[in-house]
Amino acid sequence: MDALYTAVATATHGREGRAVSSDGKVDVKLAPPVELGGNGEGTNPEQLFAAGYAACFGGALGAVGRKEKVDVSDAAVTAEVGIGKVGEGFGLKVTLRVELPESVDQETGRKLVEAAHQVCPYSNATRGNIEVDLVVE
Q1: Is the CB of residue 71 less than 8 Å from the CB of residue 65?
Q2: Side-by-side strand order, sheet with 18-21
Q3: At 106, which helix (H) or strand (E)?
Q4: Three-state SS for 8?
Q5: DSSP conformation class of 77
Q6: What global pTM score does this model have?
Q7: What are the pLDDT digits (tens) for 31-69?
């Protein structure tokens, strides 16, 4: 694959440090959530992953909608990223909740969401590695 764009970010001190993009547009304090024993006073990798996946999936849905001539510009995507133990390590699971405009019927909406799941780079990166559930609302 030839990359059309490459994002660059650096994190220091793991989950209790800072993450900064090379252009400075992202600069966040990191902290584990309270549920994982942290103080919760910063963002965490799961929140960043959720935000990225939701935005990317929304973009893929928009591209699929335009191709199929269905207006999904008012759609909202919520990504829920869970972390838990897998053997000796940790794993992730994702639920993507896609709220479509009322003008899109359930069957069409489901087809668009499934097509977006084939197009989205995050979906392609996680396929076979992370459980991803699609919920059309």
Answers
A1: yes
A2: 9-12, 18-21, 27-29
A3: helix 106-119
A4: coil
A5: E
A6: 0.94
A7: 999 999 999 999 999 999 999 999 999 999 999 999 999
Distances (CA, A) of 92 to 9, 10, 23, 45, 95: 21, 21, 28, 11, 10
Measured on CA atoms in the order 64, 68, 74, 77, is the torsion positive or negative?
negative
3-state SS, residue 3: coil
Residue 28: phi and psi, rounded to 5, are -125, 145
**What is the rounded CA–CA span in Å between residue 131 and residue 112?**
20
The helix/strand/coil state of 15 is: helix
The tokens describing 78, both together, are 């919520």
Q: With residue 128 as reference, give the H or E element that holds it.
A: none
CB hemisphere CA count around 15 (13 angstroms): 13
